[in-house]
Design goal:
single chain; alpha+beta; BirA Bifunctional Protein, domain 2; eight-stranded mixed beta sheet; 35% helix; globular
């Protein structure tokens, strides 16, 4: 490719004009959601981007940087993958209802639905069930659609009505319906039985010898379940298996599942919510296991934020959700790609 064949920069007026309607929609959605959160009595917060730990999940990767302190010493910090740790510290401090339009960062992610730098809309309610935060999320998605006047979401030939009554589907029911797998039969005492799931899924997905229970679960979810979600209306996929609980508490009376949900439209995951875990020892155990697996797979691990773990033990019962704001804007504006709804594309891209 010669220099004359290269695309003009994104900021040239002729290229920018194509994106401007989507950006105007972004502004309208932002205003509408801020108004809704204010009406509901939420406080908007701004938390620190640089963190001691960017998050402790196996497959999350974060950029790192070195700070030089006043005495000349160096300190490693990470760009956050979520504002979750800081927001939960605010819950422990006594804030009852908070939300944040948070700039977050992910290494190893780029595509029509992924950016290395993006906006996560997160909010938390103290002393609220995860049913309440689930209901919030459905309302927020509808408000975004209303702000742009769009009647339905569409993406890659799929459509969803954001105003229709959503489909409620447990993860176990989704596996049974779309993959013919009895997922809960492969879980005992909150732990996944790798061999049992491998046997059940052997005709559904390709399984490698070193695949864990979670690897096989993710393959079935991505290949067989997710493409069928959010068709015609939103889908709330809930009661995630306990091995995939992350920072969610286990469901009372059934240790096989956790109070975790995700919401889909047109096969696109929009939100991930939890009934929040408040057992600091259990959270440390989960983080340590995830970092051990990260070290095995990727040869690296992130430190644990002991201050966060202390806050987990002090915070009230709460529920919270992380919503991919750029994805929501993409669907509510009719944009075909996520990079068309951000004011400036990732640095270094034309």
């Amino acid at each position: 490719m010669t220099v004359h064949d290269q695309p003009s920069p994104w900021w040239t007026p002729e290229r920018y004009a194509d994106r401007r309607p989507f950006l105007q929609a972004r502004s309208a959605i932002t205003r509408a959601l801020r108004a809704w959160f204010e009406e509901q009595g939420f406080a908007e917060v701004e938390t620190a981007i640089l963190q001691i730990s960017p998050g402790n999940e196996t497959h999350l990767h974060a950029p790192r940087t070195e700070l030089r302190q006043a005495d000349g010493a160096h300190a490693t910090r990470y760009l956050r993958t979520s504002p979750e740790f800081a927001c939960k510290k605010l819950l422990a401090a006594g804030e009852p209802k908070i939300y944040e339009f948070a700039r977050v960062f992910r290494d190893r992610e780029r595509g029509d639905l992924h950016l290395p730098e993006f906006t996560m809309l997160e909010w938390y309610r103290a002393d609220a069930s995860y049913d309440a935060i689930m209901a919030d999320t459905i309302v927020v998605i509808a408000h975004a659609a209303q702000a742009t006047g769009i009647g339905r979401f569409s993406f890659r030939g799929r459509i969803a009505d954001p105003f229709a009554e959503p489909e409620l589907l447990t993860v176990a029911a989704g596996f049974e319906r779309f993959a013919g797998i009895d997922l809960l039969a492969t879980i005992a005492g909150g732990e996944g039985d790798r061999d049992a799931l491998a046997s059940a899924a052997r005709d559904r997905v390709r399984i490698a010898d070193d695949d864990t229970w979670s690897d096989i679960f993710s393959k079935v979810l991505v290949e067989h379940v997710e493409p069928n979600l959010g068709q015609g209306r939103l889908t709330v996929l809930f009661e995630y298996p306990s091995p995939e609980a992350a920072l969610a508490r286990t469901k009372a009376g059934d240790p096989r599942v956790a109070e975790r949900f995700e919401i889909y439209a047109c096969g696109v995951e929009l939100a991930n919510g939890f009934g929040e875990l408040t057992d600091a020892a259990e959270q440390r155990h989960r983080f340590t296991a995830a970092m051990d697996e990260k070290a095995r797979r990727y040869g690296e691990r992130y430190p644990l934020d002991d201050d966060f773990l202390a806050a987990v033990g002090q915070m009230p019962e709460a529920s919270g959700v992380a919503l991919g704001f750029d994805r929501l804007v993409m669907l509510a504006s009719g944009a075909p790609r996520i990079d068309q709804v951000v004011w400036t594309p990732p640095a270094g891209e034309p």
